[in-house]
Amino acid sequence: MSDLVATLRDGRRREREQAFFYRILAGDAEAASDQAAADRLNGLLADEQHHVSRLTARLLELGERPTDESSSLVVPSLRDWESVAKVREEDEVRWYEAALHHVEDEDTVAVLREILASERHHREQLAGKWMPAGSASPSEKTRETP
Ligand SMILES: [Fe+2]
């Protein structure tokens, strides 16, 4: 396996784990009727799923078949999610920065840079890319829902 393929597989495995992490927490937030947390966690989940798709597409373009390894990730309680997520997002930013130091393939560099920008946003905001700053309160959101 080339270094490039190994990097893409590792990145994809990590993104799948991040998506799983936020999926569980978003479900917990919805079960606890914490709509504000659920909105942020669902935004993060959507971004991480998008990252999985981007890395999967790049692997397929390279003629590779993505594999889905199982994960033994332990997800924290809803009360602690922000501190744990912050550490995980800092780690994601470091991983992409390191990958960009050794990946030379132009198309892959473009994908990694795009994801890195999103991960930096996650690290700073702990929210998804498309959630506006100072977003609507839960009651305002409810009114927007048809
Ligand atoms: Fe992230």
Structure, explained:
The protein is mostly helical and 146 residues long. The chain has a single domain, classed as Ferritin, core subunit, four-helix bundle (Ferritin, Up-down Bundle), CATH 1.20.1260. Helix content is 72%, strand content 0%. Helix 1 runs antiparallel to helix 2 (35-61) and helix 2 packs antiparallel against helix 4 (106-125). The longest helix is centred in the first third of the chain and has 29 residues, at 3-31. It is elongated. The N and C termini lie far apart (50 Å). Residues 131-146 have low confidence and may be disordered. Bound molecules: fe (ii) ion. Fe (ii) ion binds at residues 18, 48, 89, 92, 119, 122.
Summarize the model shown.
The chain has 146 residues and is mostly helical. The protein has helices at residues 3-31, 35-61, 81-102, 106-125, 138-144.
- CATH T-level fold name: Ferritin
What does the overall shape look like?
elongated
Secondary-structure element order, as H and E?
HHHHH
Radius of gyration: 16 Å
| Average pLDDT level | 89
Question: How far is the N terminus from the C terminus?
Answer: 50 Å
Strand content: under 5%
